[in-house]
Amino acid sequence: MAHSHAAGEAAAPEHNFPEKAGEYVRIGVILVVLTALEVGAYEVAHRAHGTALGAAWFVPTILVLSALKFALVALYYMHLKWDGRFLKGIFTFSLFVAAIVILALMVLMTYHYTYAGTLPKVG
Amino acid sequence: MAHAEAHAHPATSTGIDNRKLAIWTFIGSECLFFASLISTYLVYKGKSLVGPFPKDIFEIPLVTFGTALLLFSSLFVVLSLNAAEQGNRKKTILWLGLTIVCGLFFIGMQVYEFSHFVHKGLTMQGNLFGASFYTLTGFHGTHVTIGVVWLLTVFIELLRGKLPPAKALNLEIAALYWHFVDVVWIVIFPVVYLMN
């Protein structure tokens, strides 16, 4: 329902996105599979911890899977795929600023802890 | 002609229904809110001097079940919206009811988890992990609770026959909020529980 009428309560909303319950179910199945992969990766990394296999691949894998799930829900279930640029822009801009907030805080606090660690002890 | 044009375009400068624009703007601000909470959790991650630590208390199978509940609830609410737009009242009620049940089960899961953690000694004031964990997941749980109450009000409207297809936007706006609660959990689940 990307574009509603001005008197949205007086007339049926327009449909300019596919009304397919099947498509939503397919996306649901993909989301469940991605979640299973996340937990599977966790189990493998957990058991491989301290072995030759290691777990360096774990965090990037989990982040990619999580990003895929996020994108699928936002695009299909929140209808951003079919919505106008304006709404896409609001959400994308918010995510961009949110990412900057996370990065800035991480860098700032990492610097703080590193710097604090090098300070001579008082007393 | 003039009437047709007026009917085709909402009387807003953006061409988008004000309520829909408002919920997207609100969701945008919520992104920043949760970004602050997630970054706080990450900043304090591994900085606790005393336990309990994440690896001592997390129960991944339980949280995976909760994650599945939220994912299914997102599917159910979008199916409910789909049915509402097509004027299928029975299916709208069925899917929306299932969405609410999933939400209630998720809240139950979180209440059980929190009480279990408190019994194991994890409190807000105990260590940095406890403070940042309860703040982040507690705020998310509050959002889930608000979402359930919101969906419940729409559900009651539906049962009273006050949600015809023309009013499906009311359900869509509640559903957008619900999906947002879901995508936030999609981030919290791996960052907090799996990357410990």
Work out the helicity level of chain A: 55-70%
Please tell me the total number of domains of chain B: 1
Q: Biggest sheet of chain A, open or closed, and with what strands and sense?
A: none
The domain count of chain A comes to 2
Biggest sheet of chain B: strands, sense, closure?
none
The general outline of chain B is elongated
CATH superfamily of chain B: Cytochrome c oxidase, subunit III, four-helix bundle
Do you know the CATH topology of chain B?
Answer: Four Helix Bundle (Hemerythrin (Met), subunit A)
Classification by helices and strands of chain A: mainly alpha
Radius of gyration of chain B: 20 Å
> For the largest interface in this structure, which chains are involved and how many residues does each contribute?
A-B, 56 and 64 residues
Query: Quick one: how many beta strands of chain A?
Result: 0
Average pLDDT taken over every residue of chain A: 78
Poorly predicted runs of chain B: 1-9
Strand proportion of chain A, as a percent range, falls in under 5%
CATH architecture of chain B: Up-down Bundle
**What structural class do helix, strand and pairing data of chain B support?**
mainly alpha
Low-confidence spans of chain A: pLDDT under 50, at least 5 residues?
1-17
CATH class of chain B: Mainly Alpha
